[in-house]
Amino acid sequence: MTEWQERYSAEFDRDDVGASGSLPPLSLGVAGPWRLTPIDGAAPPIPPQAALSYLLSARYRVVPFLARGAELDSLTSWRDGGPSEAARLVHAPGGHGKTRLADRFAALSRKAGWTTTAAAPYRPGTPGRRHAGGQDMVVIDYAERWPMQDLVDLMTALHDRSKRLRVLLLSRYSGTWWQILRAELTSLGVVADPTPLPPIALTPELRRETFVAARDAFAERLELPPDMATSVATPPYLGDGYFSRALTLHMAALVAVHAATTGQLPPADQSALSRYLLDRERLHWHRLHAKGHAAPGVDGAVTVAAGTMARLVYVATTTGPLDHDDARKAVTAALEDPSAADRMLRDHRVCYPPAEQRLALEPLYPDLLGEDFVALMTLGHQVAAFEADPWATDAPMRLVGASNAAPPWTPRLIATLAEAARRWPHLATEVLNPLLRLRPELAALAGGPALAGLLSLPGLEPPALEAVRENLAQRGLPEFHPARAIVTERLTDYYLGGPTIFGVTAIRRGQSGVRHAIAGNLRRALVELTEAVDEARELARILPNHHGDEALAGHLLNLAGVVTQIDRLDEAETLAREALALARQVAERDPHTRRALARALTNTAIILRRRGQLDNGLRHAEEAEDILRDLASTDPQIEEDYAQCLMTIAASHQALGNLKVAGESVNNALQTFTRLDGAYPGRYRDRRARALLLTAELHFLSNQPGEAARALFAAVPLLRPLAAAMPATYERMLALTLRNLGTMLMVTDRPTEAIEFALEAIDMGRKFRTVEPHEGSAELAQALITGSGVMASVERDRDSLAFIEEAVRILEDLSTSDPRHDRSLEIARGNLKLARKRLSGGLE
To answer: Given this model, what pLDDT does residue 348 score?
Structure first.
């Protein structure tokens, strides 16, 4: 069936400095995961006392929709063709016009007979009753801000409820979060694809056309006479690439028109656009407050001064719209005046009427303007004309509170701060550094692209990065491994770039090597871990003690794991034996280190088995089992070590032909990993998948293909999100699993089910071939051989012949320089003869 592939990332967990203990699953105090609301197509009227910024909102469609013909044609083809259920991600930076495009597409879809709804997170409710047999279009804006599980749950709820379902997701980013979601959707049978949205105006001519259209629309709204409107000139600064986006062109047009209505000169450069608009917001608050001061109780007046309203707008922009109870909690937390919270919410509603009446705290839109406002409210910027408020420096800390259960607005708060910090670095130094030092778990709550963007901010300092790194390590979720690699690499570069305490460099290099190894960056891991071993060896020589020996043993084991993965087994055995000898010496002096000795024994057993020393490897693994049994504990880390040891014992017994004993060991390991994964969702997904794969192989060797297929079926949905998050580590494992599953289904008379998995394995093989021509070609050839057999079993003889002919061509090319492929070529040529006979009618 396949050679079992050992897992070496388990050994790396040990030497993550600071990763002691484990944390409970992340929690958000969310009343309900989503709400679906109809998109009726009508632009709502702008509230009579709305601020100037409302004219920029896509919701009110002040500026007519222009261009985007190619994008609409592409979306229409996606909607009307293809499978019954599909999802598409449209991604681009803020201000490109994603929401306006989706709004226009929804309108066209309604005319074409589709039922269109919008989904929003953090709202009470569930998907409403759907039209049986209908065509449903669901739009999800700000998809990157959704908790991943909520997106998966929503797609699961929508799945298979319509005759045709289309889900259009809008996001500033694609990246890892989308790869994980796409894998989850694929397991549901939903075809998902991403498409970037290009800027609307890449040339000066297009920028001028877009500016003029927006200018005329704003002039009509602000009642500027036509002759004055046409005299509003195109600003000279539109040549800057910043104005290739729809929003920035609309901002420039609105500022130019508004300045004309008041007889002022418009800003002379683009940097003043946001400041001009924010000054108009402040003036709006002041006038409404003056109205209330002159005539208390009059409709449309506010009681709070402009300074307090600025703080309320800050809260609304960082939390987003909330139901009234949550809004009251947010205002009370930030402004620390519970008795005035309801009054302040009423006043804010006057200035910023919400899109939904049941909600409060309508943010300052568009996002770009709101992010600029948050930054300018915070001390540390250099814009002299905009006075900051010292309150804003600590406002995020007040908003998240001191409780371990973060409030439901936390992901948006962190995402807003991180996005604004890209343009305003003082937010990182003044706000995010102290916030993350004290509450590092907030970074994990941001999730997805916000987390990656956050950790890449230049202004984040080592203490904050250290706190986040330790928290992510304690979480242990595979989805966080790429983020952990980012933060570890940043810390390594920092510590190695200046003076350090003697011996710290070995720790830093070791941490960096571990993170790169887990993420599949083996070359970088090899360099870092080799240097870590050299430095740890020198430290142990100069300062001989069991702490230095223990650290050296850990670095040696991690390096042994990496060189094993690149098939340098002689070197791996040498490293592992040296590490084991050190671990024994340390354990004799300090019994508390016996767990480290057990790990050294388990890892050495893996390498010895790979070297063909089966009995010797089994003896090492059984010695580790004895130690871990003595350390029996409810500590999940010790339980994990014990289950991993059982996996090694099972693999050793399998290699020795003791299939029954191997099955008992792997079954016990699988039960432990499944229980741990239930207690810490996602953290043990990798272990469960590998235990299932070994279970499948044992069933295959025991001539139980049906049981093997059942185990492989269970492994596939576990591997998909892992492969999406860390393709270098898990994609090939997923492809191999799909190939084996196709084979097992074929031999158990379920060939129709096998087709999907066999074809997906072929597609993955083609992808591998483009990245690594030699190894990828070999994997593609094996997938084609499997696919050919599956197609033959459903009497698709032409497809079967085409696949096996391609496999033979690939293997003939490979075998000319690599005799390892001769056996596969012999098998493929035999299958080719059979395929030709079937097609000619000469074979029943």
So the answer is: 94
Secondary structure string (H, E, C) spanning 250-316:
HHHHHHHHHHHHHCCCCCCCHHHHHHHHHHHHHHHHHHHHHHHHHCCCCCCCCCCCHHHHHHHHHHH
3-state secondary structure of 835: helix
Cβ atoms within 10 Å of 645's Cβ, excluding its own? 28
Q: Is the pLDDT of residue 708 over 80?
A: yes
C-alpha distances in angstroms, 282 versus 307, 347, 376? 9, 14, 13
Task: Report the alpha-carbon distance of residue 711 to residue 681 in Å, rounded.
Answer: 20
Q: What are phi and psi of 749, to 5 degrees?
A: 60, 40
Q: Write the CA distances from 658 to 128, 166, 608, 650, 759, integer angstroms.
A: 55, 51, 18, 9, 34
Eight-state DSSP code of residue 28: B
222-237 confidence digits (pLDDT tens): 999 988 989 998 888 8
φ/ψ of 519, rounded to 5, equals -80, 0
User: What does the pLDDT look like over 391-404, one tens digit per residue?
Assistant: 999 999 999 987 77
pTM over cut 0.70: no
pLDDT of residue 300: 61
Mind spelling out the 3-state secondary structure of 592-641? HHHHHHHHHHHHHHHHHHHCCCHHHHHHHHHHHHHHHHHCCCCCHHHHHH
Answer whether residue 131 shows pLDDT above 60.
no
Q: Are 772 and 735 in contact (CB under 8 A)?
A: no
Q: Strand 191-196 vs strand 164-171: parallel, antiparallel, or unpaired?
A: unpaired
Residue 105 in contact with residue 75, Cβ under 8 Å?
yes
pLDDT at 790: 93
Q: What is the pLDDT of residue 74?
A: 95
Contacts of 670 (CB under 8 A, 6+ apart): 688, 691, 692, 695
Structure tokens at 828: 């493929």
Please give the Cα distance from 217 to 121 (Å, whole number): 32
> Which of 691, 698, 721, 799 minimizes the C-alpha distance to 754?
799
Q: Check whether the bond before 366 is cis (ω within 30° of 0).
A: yes
769-793 per-residue burial string, b: 16 or more CB within 10 A, e: under 16:
beeeeeebbbbbbbbbbbbbbbbbb
- From CA 1, how far away is CA 22, in angstroms rounded? 37
Rg for the chain (alpha carbons), in Å?
Answer: 31
**If we measure between CA atoms, which residue out of 706, 716, 660 comes closest to residue 685?**
716
As a whole number of angstroms, the distance between CA 480 and CA 484 comes to: 6
Q: Which residues of 577-610 are buried (b: 16+ CB within 10 A; e: fewer)?
A: bbbbebbebbbeeeeebbbbbbbbbbbbbbbbbb
Q: Which residue, 737, 818, 727, 841, is CA-closest to 782?
A: 737
Sign of the Cα pseudo-torsion (221, 222, 225, 226, in order): negative
Q: Positive or negative CA dihedral for 201, 207, 213, 214?
A: positive
Looking up tokens 């694609």 gives 174
Model confidence pLDDT, tens digit, residues 288-307: 888 754 445 556 678 999 99
Strand partners, 139: 118, 168
Q: What backbone torsions phi and psi does residue 90 show, to the nearest 5 degrees?
A: -105, 115
Tokens of 173: 């980013």
Q: What is the pLDDT of residues 11-43, one digit of tens each?
A: 223 333 222 233 333 333 323 357 788 887 778
Report, as an integer, the average pLDDT of 512-537.
84
DSSP 175-189: HHHHHHHHHHHHHHT
**The residue to which tokens 């690599």 are assigned:** 818
Mean pLDDT of the chain: 85
One-letter amino acid at 310 equals A
Give the model's confidence band at 476: pLDDT under 50 very low, under 70 low, under 90 confident, else very high.
low
How many angstroms separate the CA atoms of 471 and 459, rounded?
20
